[in-house]
Structures are given as C-alpha cells and as structure tokens.
Amino acid sequence: MIFTPASKPLHGTINVPGDKSISHRAVMIGSLAEGDTEISHFLPGADCLSTIECFRKMGIQIELTENNTHVLVHGRGLHGLSAPDSVLDCGNSGTTTRLISGILAGQKFSSSLTGDESIQKRPMNRIILPLSEMGAEIRSENENGCVPLQISPSHLKGICYQSPVASAQVKSCVLLAGMYAEGKTSVTEPALSRNHTELMLRGFGAEVTSEGTTATITPEPVLHGRKLTVPGDISSAAYFLCAGLMVPDSEVLLKHVGTNPTRDGILRVIQDMGGSVTYRRLLSDAGEPTADLEVRYSRLHGTVIEGSLIPILIDELPIIAVLAATAEGDTVIRDAQELRYKESDRLALIAENLEAMGISVDPTEDGMVIHGRRNLYGGTPAAEGKPLHGAVIDSHKDHRLAMSFAIAALAADGETEIRDAECVNISYPDFYRDLQSLSE
Ligand SMILES: O=C(O)C1=C[C@@H](OP(=O)(O)O)[C@@H](O)[C@H](O)C1
Ligand SMILES: C=C(OP(=O)(O)O)C(=O)O
Q1: Which of the ligands is closest to the CA of residue 124?
Q2: Which residues does phosphoenolpyruvate bind (predicted)?
Q3: Helices 46-57 + 20-31 axis angle, to 10
Q4: Would you say residue 380 has pLDDT above 60?
Q5: What are phi and psi of 345, to 5 degrees?
Q6: How far is the CA of 414 from the centre of ligand 1 (A)?
Q7: pLDDT band at 374 (very low <50, low <70, confident <90, very high)
Q8: Which CATH code for domain 2-17+231-437?
C-alpha cells in the first residue's frame, strides 16, 4: 500500500476502537462466569476473534452484533467449559495463547493449541515453567518452548511466582490457573505490567488483591456475568496522538481512550518531550479510567525511556520511535529487550525501517538511540524540509510496524510503500479509514 506525505494539517475526531487486552479478557472471564456477559465497544480485530473461536470450540455460545463490536457471552461458570474436538487456533495472538493456557491447565479435559507462523516462534517457556511449578501437565509438542502446546488434566496447587519478566500475559496466565488451584496463587513481577486481568476478575466477583508488583488470587471464585463497555485502546490511539503531534498545525480529538496508569506510559513520554495533550471528560468504569484526549502539533525534543516505564508503553514503542525521529535531539530507549519477542523482532525492524527513511539510529541489545531530525522540519506540512525520506517498508506482517510507518509516511518527503499493510486487521481493522478521515 502506498502512503503520501501530509499536505495539510490533520483535523478531526477519532472514535478509538475497543481495547484489545480488555476485549480478550472480557470474552475469557465472561465465558467462565455464571450467566450472560454483554460487552459493548468490543474490538473486532482478528486477535480477539481468535479468542472467541477458541471459547466457542469449548461449548460457549457467543453472539456478535453491530459489526462485531457488541458481544453476548453465555457464560457457563468456572467449570462449564467442554472438551474441544480439535486443536484450538490462537492465530497471531500471544494474549490468546498465554492466557488461555492458564485456563486450560485447570480443566478436566485435554487440549492442544497452536497459532500462525509468528506465534509458532514466540516463547512459551515463560508460561510452561510457572504452570509446571503449579503441577500442570503442559508441554511443547516440538520441545522447542513454542506452540503447539499439549495440556492434560492435573491437580494444580497455588504458588508464589517471581516472574523474571514484567509481562501481563505471564501474570494473567498464572492468575487464571490460580482460580483452579489448591490455595492462593500470587505473582510478583520486576515492574508492574497492565493490570486489566486483576481489575476485571475483581469486577466479576473474584478475590484478587494487588500490592506493589504482586497480585494474589483466591481459588474457586464465583464469577458473575455482567455488562461492560470496553474503553478505547490507548495502543491504537497512540498512532493518532503521534500523527497530531508531528504534522504542523494539526488538532485531533481521540474519544473515550483508556488511561489506566499501567498503560499510559506514552502520555508520560509525550509530556516529557514537550507535547500538548489535554484530557477531557474523565470517567471510570470498574477501575478502568478513560478520557477524551485532544492533541495539538508540538515542537518536541528527545527523551530517555527506560526501566518501569517500558512495560506501561511496550506496544507503543514502535510509534514512539517514529515520533522521536521527528523530534529535536536524541531519544534513548533502554530495557526494552522484550520487544524482540513480539510478532516480529520489533527492535531490529524499527531501527532498520527508520534507517531506510533516512534517520540515524544506534541499535543496542535492549533498545536504541534515535537521532531525531526535528531541526530539519520547517514547521509547515509542505514536502520540503520533511524530516524523513519516503521508503519501502517491510512490516513483516507486524500490525504495529505497519501502523507506525504509515504515520511516519506523513512526515516523509516522498511516497512510502508498506508491504503486507493489511496486517493492521489484527488490532485495528479500520486504521486506514480513520487515518484518511483526518485529511478530508
Ligand atoms: O496482556 C496483554 O493483553 C498484553 C500484554 C503485553 O504482552 P507481554 O505480556 O508479553 O508483555 C502486550 O505486548 C500485548 O500486546 C498484550
Ligand atoms: C504483542 C502484541 O500482541 P500479542 O502479544 O497478543 O500477540 C501486540 O498487540 O502488539
């Protein structure tokens, strides 16, 4: 797909699609609840649809309406899943694979799960190890620490797990398995990752406590089906936040964005870089805060992004790197080695693609230094003086790279071609339509 530079300021309002993490969890926890769960503003991305298909295969009736953004889950209780008659396909979704494994470890039936080419390369030992410690029978079929995974019934016992990584998927997997264990289960992480599982389990009636970076669950909760509205995904809003900041004289309003403090690292970084974002209409539902975010073009400078900030902006690092490329001075990213284990090696591909667009980048083992070119950006959206060069970008079918470089193309001095651009379907099916709407 071909992208052209912005020829005028971006203006408009985006109804940000539902949060991917929360959409997955609503289907999973709703399936294990007693009675119906009605989910509004569900994200109809391919990843969340994979989660729905997996639960349908285990006997849960799930109805989709309103262009798949309204979901009715007929929950069957904590022990109401039935044995799937074929392998569970998690598609491209790490969240589906890791969270569902925790649930499957507690079932009285055997199951196997797999996913696409990218999922087959992603590390699963990070969940196999703690689940095995709980007594689960889980193994990687090819003994390479990846899917396909085989899970057989077993007796689980609660553990206190010290996770070596700040990963919400690992934490959630262990907590979900903890619902079926004997005794309490707790997970301590090196830094706090997104806490949607803890908040949602609590909202459905489970006893889950959080103290610092430790979350603890009491087993055998009775979960009650409920109505919930999924906040807009800050990871999707991120592309338009950055576009609005980058293109001179732009002003964009992003509606009903989730601003949970375990997800809002990008807003902290933008503030640190000198960006203007105004919060309006602040609301909160079951512990999940939301706001309308108004973003304006700003003259940005480089910053340092490291430590406990990393897990709270992990999926936004590709677009933050693009933003940094258009800022004045250097931006340093450290402690982000986790980015190598996503849908692609995002650290390598961010650096490679920014360089293809004329930005000088010094890659490191756990991050990079980006030498921003803001000083070359003349302060008008005209093609002359743009900080980046148009280039051919290989997304490696990674949705976050495709979207990040579609935004980079706005600040480039010629056409940019993005390969496999349709992969945005994973987390933001209407991304290109929404992007286009800001230039009309
Ligand atoms: O729990 C979740 O919903 C997610 C956790 C993060 O992964 P890790 O747990 O691997 O950090 C994130 O990158 C992913 O997009 C969604
Ligand atoms: C890493 C991501 O998702 P997942 O781990 O669920 O595949 C992502 O959406 O950027």
Answers
A1: 1
A2: 20, 94, 122, 169, 346, 400
A3: 10
A4: no
A5: -80, 90
A6: 34
A7: confident
A8: 3.65.10.10
How does DSSP assign 341-396, residue by residue?
GSSS-HHHHHHHHHHHTT-EEEEETTEEEEEEEGGG--SSSSSTT-SB---EEE-T
User: Which residues approach ligand 2 with their CB closer than 6 A?
Assistant: 47, 93-95, 315, 342-343, 400, 427
The ligand minimizing its distance to the Cα of 197 is 1
**Residue count of the chain:** 440
25 is in an annotated binding site: yes
Do 322 and 300 meet the contact criterion of CB atoms below 8 Å apart?
Answer: no
Helix (H, G, I), strand (E, B) or coil at 180: coil
List the structure tokens of 37: 């769960």
DSSP conformational letter for 37: E
Name the token pair of 17: 């699609």
Handedness of CA 336, 313, 179, 44 (dihedral sign): negative
19 is catalytic: no
Query: Which atom of ligand 1 is found nearest the CA of 341?
Result: 10
pLDDT of 340 over the 60 cut = yes
Task: Quickly list DSSP for 137-155.
Answer: EEEETTSSSSSSEEEE---
SS3 402: helix
Q: Are 245 and 275 in contact (CB under 8 A)?
A: yes
Is residue 383's pLDDT more than 70?
A: no
* CATH 3.65.10.10 in the chain, residue ranges: 2-17+231-437, 20-229
- Point out the catalytic residue in the list 315, 394, 398, 434: 315
pLDDT at res. 379 = 55
> pLDDT tens, 398-438?
999 999 999 999 999 999 999 999 999 999 999 999 999 99
CA 311 – ligand 1 centroid, Å: 9
Cα angle, residue 166 at apex, residues 198 and 291 outer, rounded to 5°: 55
Q: Residue 384 — very low, low, confident or very high, per pLDDT cuts 50/70/90?
A: low
Mutate to test the pocket of ligand 1, among 29, 169, 171 (most ligand atoms within 8 A of CB): 169
Residue with tokens 């000088």: 360
**Domain 20-229, CATH:** 3.65.10.10
pTM reported for the whole predicted model: 0.98
**Residue 377 above 70 pLDDT?**
no
Confidence band, pLDDT 50/70/90 cuts, at residue 154: very high
Q: Please tell me the distance from the alpha carbon of residue 250 to that of residue 370, in angstroms, as a whole number.
A: 24
Percent of the chain at pLDDT exceeding 70: 98
- φ/ψ of residue 304, rounded to 5: -120, 130
Residue 382 pLDDT class (50, 70, 90 cuts)? low
109 pLDDT above the threshold of 90 = yes
The confidence score (pLDDT) of residue 359 equals 96
